[in-house]
Design goal:
By secondary structure, the protein is mainly alpha-helical. Helix content is 74%, strand content 3%. The protein is globular and about 70 Å long.
């Protein structure tokens, strides 16, 4: 019942925060803090499984599960399950939820109760997405996380928030309906084969269909997930949504919601449609490599700092798509690491951009310049996360991108070389951001905040929250093996159908990094 308790606590916390703010001003923040902290404590009950030796565990073994009858006439059940992959992503979700709440503690000035209601319901929907193993329930949580995020952008966003919210809704809702059609089609095909109507993930893994049918059903899932990822050319909603969203909303989008698309590809698309996924892999890898380079080029061309970070997400998530469809253990493990490292580093960058906008009332780097001497703590921390974003060795982003490229090189050397160019682009836009905002000369009139008084540097609360993320990136870079150990059985279970051979206990064991590199040669 722990999984259900986590989701229920977040849903109930959102309702209580909305109600509490109407009776006691300022209580919604503390209620939200307690709800997310309580959910994190509940999740950490699984820490013993995360650190246990899973050598003898079969691939795809659930750590915990809950299955209740919901709509039996249509084979729909309330089926929640957790494994290592889900644990890592839910831990990222809750920690980034805490970070976003703490770092923007004083930024919400109106309708705070309703803001934190939507904030917590977005987190609850994401946790549901990472644990739902009934496809109808998965779609339900997929929609639950989208609507509150839409409201966060539309109500508390910036000058063009309505346009950005509508664009976000059209892209995500259209792709969601396409996924729903694919889900219903998969269930119907399974019904034709067995005479049983079910939305259960484990049952649908055994569905039999023709290659052509599988290809079209796979595309329905693929398009829905790459829109959320996002991948080129269906990425255009992301820069507008990120730029216009409030800082807390940008953190949720970058650190958490984008990962639901990658999770869907790994959990559902690859195992449900192995033959179609293998046939489509060269095209998917090409899209990923184009996204890596294209996102870096567009990020380099931006004047708006928030828009620059948004386009950098397109580039970084291209590495995730590339790694997933390289279809070997090393690349997929690198993609999982990229989800975590990108979530941490980009959340910090959006928090820093939000802090600058709050102080300067602008995101235009041409109106900044020479900020290093005025806000040294903010500038130093921004430099750390900028070099983390470009893939500095010793940090989690470097491990992730190195493994993705290493695994991709075994699958397709040309695509790996093209994607490696994106690393050069990352260095260019990250260092240009630091030069223009913190070291270079201001090219326009000074912001209003700088005319009357000196800029305030990061306070203790903001500094502590950002340093926590910096330590997390260092730990991911210097000791990545625990992440690989935790996610290894889930990764093995996802690629088992693609390899066309059963995975024995020795292959399902959490492989050490050196063993993964060796195994990728065989993959």
């Amino acid at each position: 019942m722990t999984i259900l308790a986590i989701i229920s606590l977040l849903f109930a916390g959102g309702i209580l925060a909305w109600w509490g703010e109407r009776h006691l001003r300022g209580s919604s923040q503390w209620i939200s803090l307690l709800a997310i902290a309580g959910a994190t404590i509940l999740l950490l009950r699984y820490w013993g499984l995360a650190t246990a030796d899973m050598t003898a565990a079969p691939a795809g073994l659930w750590w915990d599960s809950l299955q209740l009858s919901w709509i039996p006439r249509f084979g729909i059940s309330f089926f929640l399950a957790l494994d290592g992959l889900g644990f890592l992503l839910i831990l990222l979700t809750l920690l980034m939820g805490l970070f976003g709440l703490i770092v923007t503690w004083r930024e919400v000035s109106f309708r705070r109760g309703f803001f934190y209601f939507n904030y917590l319901w977005t987190l609850a929907g994401v946790v549901g997405v990472f644990t739902a193993m009934d496809l109808f329930l998965f779609f339900f949580f997929w929609e639950v996380m989208l609507i509150p995020m839409l409201l966060l952008i539309a109500i508390w966003g910036y000058e063009q928030r309505i346009f950005a919210a509508i664009k976000f809704f059209i892209f995500t809702q259209a792709s969601s309906l396409l996924m729903l059609m694919a889900i219903v089609g998969l269930v119907y095909v399974h019904f034709e084969n067995t005479g049983v109507v079910t939305f259960n993930y484990r049952d649908l893994l055994a569905a039999q269909f023709s290659p052509q049918t599988g290809y079209w059903l796979m595309l329905g899932f693929f398009v829905a997930f790459v829109v959320k990822l996002p991948a080129v050319p269906v990425h255009t909603w992301l820069p507008d949504a990120h730029t216009q969203a409030p800082t807390a909303g940008s953190i949720l989008l970058a650190a958490i919601l984008l990962k639901t698309g990658a999770y869907g590809l790994l959990r559902f698309t690859l195992p449900l449609f192995p033959q179609a996924s293998a046939a489509f892999a060269p095209m998917a890898m090409t899209i990923g490599a184009i996204g890596v380079v294209y996102g870096a080029v567009l990020a380099f061309a931006q004047r708006d700092m928030k828009r620059l970070v948004a386009y950098s997400s397109v580039s970084h998530m291209g590495f995730v798509l590339l790694g997933l469809y390289a279809l070997n253990t090393v690349a997929i493990q690198g993609a999982v690491m990229q989800m975590l490292a990108h979530g941490v580093s980009t959340a910090a960058l959006f928090a820093l951009v939000g802090a600058l906008q709050h102080r300067l009332h602008t995101r235009d780097m041409e109106l900044m310049g020479d900020l290093w001497s005025q806000v040294p703590k903010l500038a130093a921390i921004a430099l750390f996360f900028a070099v983390a974003s470009l893939g500095l060795p010793g940090l989690g982003n470097f491990i992730a991108e190195f493994m993705v490229l290493l695994g991709t090189f075994d699958s397709n050397r040309t695509i790996a070389v093209v994607a490696a160019i994106g690393l050069v682009g990352a260095a260019m836009y990250a260092l240009q951001m630091m030069q223009r905002a913190f070291f270079g000369e201001r090219r326009g009139p000074p912001p209003e905040a700088g005319k009357a008084q000196a800029l305030a540097d990061l306070n203790l609360r903001e500094t502590a929250a950002l340093l926590f993320l910096a330590v997390a990136l260092v730990l991911l870079g210097l000791r990545p093996q625990p992440v690989f150990d935790i996610s290894a059985p889930a990764v093995a279970g996802s690629i088992q159908p693609l390899q066309g051979a059963p995975i024995n206990s020795s292959q399902a064991a959490p492989p050490k990094l050196s063993r993964q590199v060796a195994q990728s040669k065989g993959d």
